Amino acid sequence: MAHEQEHHPKLQFPLESEAYKIIDEIGVGVSAVVYKAECTPMNSTVVAIKSIDLDQSKDFDNIRRETKILSLLSHPNILNAHCSFTVDQRLWVVMPFMSGGSLQSIISSSFPDGLPEQCIAIVLKETLNALSYLHNQGHLHRDIKAGNILMDSNGCVKLADFGVSASIYESNPGYGSGSSTSSSPLMLNDVTGTPYWMAPEVIHSHTGYSFKADIWSFGITALELAHGRPPLSHLPLSKSLIMKITKRFRFSDYESNSKEGKSKKFSKAFKDMVASCLDQDPAKRPSAEKLLKHSFFKSCKGSEFLVKNVLHGLSSVEERFRVSKILGKGVHVEADDDDVDGESVSQLVKYRRISGWNFNEDGFELEPVFPDESKEDSIVKQVRFGGEMIIPGTVGEADGLSNSGRINLNSPETESSLLSSRGEGGDEASSPSSWRVGGKEESGIEGIVGDEAGIEGTVNTDIMVGGLTALIRSLDDQRQRVTDLITLFGGDVTSREDQLLQLIERLRLDLENERQKNFQLEMELEFLKIHISGASNTDENN
Ligand SMILES: Nc1ncnc2c1ncn2[C@@H]1O[C@H](COP(=O)(O)OP(=O)(O)OP(=O)(O)O)[C@@H](O)[C@H]1O
Description:
542 residues, alpha+beta, Phosphorylase Kinase, domain 1, Transferase(Phosphotransferase), domain 1, six-stranded mixed β-sheet, 16 helices, 38% helix, binds adenosine-5'-triphosphate, kinase
């Protein structure tokens, strides 16, 4: 009989796909599908298999890193893989099956307005245990979010998905495991993670970031668990990324909560804890170890509380996934709503600068901080994010990303910092991760030259390309979903190919009509010519 099984290091799971029987699809990630499966030779132990498309996944190094890091880690709050192997062009990572699924799947199906605070405290404390261990081992997770926190049937919480995690040791060989993590000056420079949860210093990659970036994402995850979604997730990824924001911006979902008085439901301790994680200055954010001592976690209940208050009555992870697929739920894909707080995007693009974020503890939300208004008239077309990030030339063009600044894609220091941060060379050099706008170094690829030279800043091309790629996928997804729904209600959807064929046919008929008209006109003309020449001959003869 199938049963759930916790990871046991002595168990050797088979390394061939034939040993596993896929039962159902339980999730999809960016380039992976997650299945519930049974391992037949292991007494039909239920497992989760993450099947990663190696063709689609451009970052094979990250995947290799994930499996390597996971195999070295051992902590009750970290989800270890049983084994991994390749199947054709896919990497199969076989993991213990966590029947509760991810916290993201739990909240999106059963707690759309967020979990009760006591439940949040337990989930966050268990996550912090994992994070503290991870940081003490010299690793950053870099993708902390509810989607990567999983729960099993006993209410045990585990941190998963080390696809983008990185080791400070790898990039800084001199760094010893005994060193303090909280004040470490060691930095990474490449940008990874999921944008809504990303710390400002990760987006401004050139300033470098360290363990405190995970603490920021942890704070965003706390808001996600509290409100049901992370800040700005109601904006599509591209808009969230380039922050088309004008005035003092309140997240509409949070605002509607506060209108109902719901934003007051959280304790002072909770708000204070989140506020400390969302400090603009990474140095001021507490370490994971210190956070664990915060009063918010003092009278935290145990996993049985989660079983009773979260898992009880919850449908299976596969059922939830089926429903979410039909409803198109999820923070990765949001409707491209052109209206934010009643203002159209074209109005919003007039002001695209924020200099950072303030966490409004009372309102329990993030608020943008705007730079000096007098600088607003500047001809520099930029988005300044945290005072550092500039996206060139988007002012006045609601739909485009035209370049008005000088773009140098291969600035030497960008590359060298990238290479040193990764501790690798070779192919990395050909994939620059940031643009330099109007910088002094002008070697490399240049874009359109404007007259704003001398203004420096960076924008990360990885983020932009990632965001835009996600947007294209989201549009394709949404088109497919709408098509499915129309079909479901008995409607008839003409496929894109059919539409084009119909258009071609229409154009062909139009052309045919035109030809006939032309032919007729020519005939009439001929007739007139004959008629006129006939008439003039008669005149001459007379
Ligand atoms: N070991 C597991 N047991 C049960 N469910 C799982 C397991 N691993 C993943 N899932 C489910 O599959 C979903 C997708 O997981 P996956 O790690 O591929 O993507 P993600 O973390 O949501 O997205 P991303 O690709 O951005 O990291 C999760 O949200 C979770 O519900």
